Structure formats: structure tokens, C-alpha cells
UniProtKB/TrEMBL annotation:
Domain Peptidase M24: 137-353
UniProt name for this protein: Xaa-Pro aminopeptidase ApepP-like
TM stretches of this protein: 442-459
Keyword hit for RNA-binding: no
Family, per entry: Belongs to the peptidase M24B family.
Organism of this sequence: Aphis craccivora (Cowpea aphid)
InterPro entries linked to this entry: Creatin/AminoP/Spt16_N, Creatinase/aminopeptidase-like, Pept_M24, Pept_M24B, Peptidase_M24_C, Peptidase_M24B_aminopep-P_CS, X-Pro_aminopeptidase_P
Keywords (A to Z) from UniProt: Aminopeptidase, Hydrolase, Membrane, Metal-binding, Protease, Transmembrane, Transmembrane helix
GO molecular function list: metal ion binding; metalloaminopeptidase activity
Residue ranges constituting the Peptidase M24 C-terminal domain according to the UniProt record: 362-431
Amino acid sequence: MGCDAMVVTALDEIAWLLNIRGHDIPYGPFLKSYVIVSKDQLHLYTDSVKLSPDIRRHLHTDNCISAHCARLHDYEAIWIDLRTLSQIWQKVLIPSATEYNNGASRCIYILINTEKRKQAPSPIMYMMAEKNSVEKEGMRLSHIRDSAVMCNILAKLDEQFKNGQQLTELAVANMVDKYRGEQNFSRGVSFKSIVGYGPNGAIPHYTPSTSSSLKLDHISTLVIDSGSHYWDGTTDVTRTVHFGQPSAEQIEAYTRVLMASIDLASFTFPHHLRLNQIDVIARAPLWDFGYDYNHGTGHGIGVFLNVHEAPVNMYYGRKSSDVVLKEGYFISDEPGYYKENHFGVRLETILEVITKNETMGKYLTFMPITLVPFEPKLIDYYMLSPKQVRTVVQWLNAYNDKIRKMVGAELLKYNSSRLGYEWMMERTMPLFSDGRRNEVCTLVVAAVIVAIATVNLLTRYEKRMKRGSLITYITYK
């Protein structure tokens, strides 16, 4: 961009750039700070009391005299330093606003002389979006653990409802947050949990409060949209469930939304196709029947960073969606249907962008890393054409098989997850070509998974006994 320096104001970009995390912002692992990067220096402006000795060593803040360290300053010192330092620069890059970031404030903007300002989207956000091999593996592992938690949560809710326990939206939200907080490597929820029953489920970003929380019953759908931060990733998942016998209208809405979700997740496309073009693939099954939803189909997601991460924003007709995907990007797949004052349906799965083939140019596709079952009783295969049935059944069988192997093994690690395991197995039965469930195959697969998990557990026990210890302690600072 031909600039001598850049002011970094987005807290997630600072966290990623310096590889540090904090807790100054609700639902975000960020340190309140600014950074100025020039060709040979990096200046960090923050409350130095918050930096532990480990962080100081990591950033080499003490005796910083080279380009490979961070010069530490008081948070408020940026107002004087930026005006002074900018005098020696020809051009300074000032981040402009994006869909998920407001860009630099006017207070920062006016500190730099007019002729030296270069306002443009931050190049850091594109670097963040394209995850490296370590980040990709962390996202996959954190989503396996998180999917296991969701199976436990949904199984427990199902059991409580069957036992006649009175549930409310707020109680469910608190339960979701509690279960997530108990998970290994958890660092708190990534946003305020969205739990909407019946008419509240028709409000896309509704969150329950003491005054609005509805009691749950067997009449309508329940939408749960939640996520968590882990040391190795950030999650965001939405599933819609029903505790009774759903109506034909609810089943149709769910089936259409599931078709939209699968059509996007299984789509293969040339690498230069833009998000606002890809969005049409997800919405088409809903448009066919006069349905639509007034929100984006997908957003980017960070690695122990923001749950909504630029520059990915899939929403047709929006300028911010004029973006191409790259291998290593992660994006949500979350079509929905909302009948005002009645009920809502939304299904959200995080997808990893991967290369499909490069025979005649580069083609990309998606791999789901959220591994939470869909609700079989809300799916009507008779609504679909023979071709659609083949597509849905083939995709669901592959997806459910992956859930059984990966999430099943995770659930079997803990005795307390037996209920979640049984709930998961019930909802991931292999399907015949017409959508009927193959229950005999399910019993065989379940026995194999249990046998493998048992052998692995005994092997680990034997190895630890030989070492003379049954516990391995992992400490994070």
C-alpha cells in the first residue's frame, strides 16, 4: 500500500498480531490497547500492569532496541506519540470500517495530517481469516469438544422435558453457559446465548431475560444459538429442536432450512466466485417456496478471537459480501425461517473452506467442523424430489458417520456423557436411500465404537500404570 506505518485499532487484530489474549471486553478475549507498526518498530499502548512477566518476555518489552520486540507505552500516550511520530512518515495507513469493525475513530484520524492519511481496510484482517495449519487443527479439535457439549446439553433438556420438569428460556440459557464453562480448555462463552421458544424463536437475535423468558412446552420449536471460546478455537452453533409432535408447517420449515444448509455445505465452486453469489445457493431452496430470512447466511469466525470475524460476510446484495473465499477460511452456514409471532427455525454449522480439486483451475468446497446432529422428526423426505432425497441422504449419512466416530469417541471419554452419547446415536442412525432409518446398522456401529473406545481407554491406562502415574497435569498461564 506504499505506507510507512499503520495504526492498528481493532482489538482482535492486535490479539492476533501479538499472539496474546486478555479479558477487558465482554465475550471477547481482548486487551484494551492500540498498536502502531512502522517498517522497523512496533509500539504497544496499554495498561502495563495487565501484562504478566510471561507476556513481557513473549513480547520482549524490556530493553527493546530492535525490530523484533514491542515498545511498551501507557494507553493514553498514543495521542501524543501518533501526532509526533507521524511527522517523520510520508503515508500512514488508517483502518476503514468493515462489516464487523468500525475502523479507526475520528480522534485517531484527525491526529494525522490530511496529506499523510491513507484510509483502507486493514490488511491484517485478511491474514487472520486465512488460518495456518496450527489454527485449523485447533478449530477442528475445539469443535469436536464443543459438539460433545451440545449433545450433552440437548440430551439433558430432552430428558428433563420427558420427566415433566418445567423449563424456561432463561433456565436453558443458563444451563448452556454452565455446561460450556465446565468443558476442557474453556475460556467463557463467545456471545450471549440465544434461546428462543415459539414466538421468541422467530426473533433472530433474541436473548431471554427475566421479563421476557417463556416457559417451554411440546407445541413449538426451540432455537438455541450459542458458542464458546477455547484455548484452541472459537465456536458458534445453532440447532432447532422440538419436544413434542411438530406440526406439518414446522416440519416443512425445518426441512427447507436443512436443504438450504446442506446445499451450501456440499457446494463446489471456482475459487474466484464471490460470497454474494454463493449466498444464492443457500437461499434457493427457501426462495422456491416464498421463504427467506433477513440476515446473512454466513460470517467468519476467529481462533480464540471474535465469533464474527471480518472480512467474511455472506449476504447477497451487500457490498461487504463482494469477497472471495480462500482455503483456510472458516465460515458459518446458518439459513433460517421465521414466522413472526409463531415460531422460528435456524441451523448453524461452521464450515472450513478446503480445496476440492485443481484439474482445470482451482475449485473449493466446504468441510463441516460443527458436529451436532439434526432433528430427524423435523425432516420430511416426502417433500423432496428424488434428486433432493439422494443429495440430503448422502450428505447426512456422511455427516452422521463423522459425528459418531469423532464426537462419539469424545463422549465416551467421560461417564457423565453417557446420556449425550445415547441421544447422539439415536439421531445419527444411517439412512436408507428414501430417508428411512437403518436401525440394525446403528446397533452394529454403536458396538464397534464402544469397543474401540474401550480398547483405547485400557491402552492409555496400561501405559500410565507403567509410568507410575494415572494423571497428566496441563497448566495454562
